[in-house]
């Protein structure tokens, strides 16, 4: 893995920057994800240098595609109006909604709250949250799905 990283990381980084509108931070994150996935499947790493390079580029492309899909799947973020901006009845609606949302979140399990916080407050992708929490990506997505469903039900 050290040899593969040394031989191909700069080319992978340049490739990932091009795929992501020259955003260096995103390219660095995706390069780390690529190398992490390659390390997890290092037994599949081809011995020949050119085949190893193609294998790593395929992983990088797939991770980039997953990242784009993940960002598109997230609902658009909306900012609640500041309490000071709301007037009259709007302030009361705002306050009641905020109380209902807090009550709904208190009913969630700690892991569901953590997943929602990581996804929607911290803005992390599901695969990144999975790595941070040490669980499969499917588990993160499942917890988020059921947590959002429970919040919607409690808010209805």
UniProtKB/TrEMBL annotation:
A Pfam cross-reference name: Sigma70_r4
Top-rank taxon, per record: Bacteria
Every RNA polymerase sigma-70 region domain range: 6-72, 104-153
GO molecular function: DNA binding; sigma factor activity
UniProt GO BP: DNA-templated transcription initiation
Record keywords, A-Z: DNA-binding, Sigma factor, Transcription, Transcription regulation
InterPro entries xref list: RNA_pol_sigma-70-like, RNA_pol_sigma-70_dom, RNA_pol_sigma70_r2, RNA_pol_sigma70_r4, RNA_pol_sigma_r2, RNA_pol_sigma_r3/r4-like, WH-like_DNA-bd_sf
Transcription found in the keyword field: yes
Family statement: Belongs to the sigma-70 factor family. ECF subfamily.
This protein's name: RNA polymerase sigma factor
Organism: Actinoplanes cyaneus
């Amino acid at each position: 893995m050290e040899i593969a990283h040394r031989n191909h990381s700069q080319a992978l980084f340049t490739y990932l920057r091009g795929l992501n509108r020259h955003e260096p931070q995103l390219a660095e994150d995706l390069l780390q994800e690529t190398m992490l996935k390659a390390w997890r499947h290092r037994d599949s790493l081809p011995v020949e240098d050119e085949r190893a390079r193609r294998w790593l580029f395929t992983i990088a492309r797939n991770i980039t595609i997953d990242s784009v899909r993940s960002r598109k799947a997230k609902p658009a973020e909306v900012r609640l109006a500041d309490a000071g901006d709301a007037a009259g009845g709007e302030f009361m609606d705002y306050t009641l909604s905020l109380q209902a949302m807090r009550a709904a979140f208190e009913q969630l399990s700690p892991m569901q709250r953590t997943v929602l916080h990581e996804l929607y407050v911290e803005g992390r992708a599901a695969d990144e949250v999975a790595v941070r929490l040490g669980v499969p990506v499917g588990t993160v997505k499942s917890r988020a799905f059921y947590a959002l469903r429970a919040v919607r039900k409690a808010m209805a």
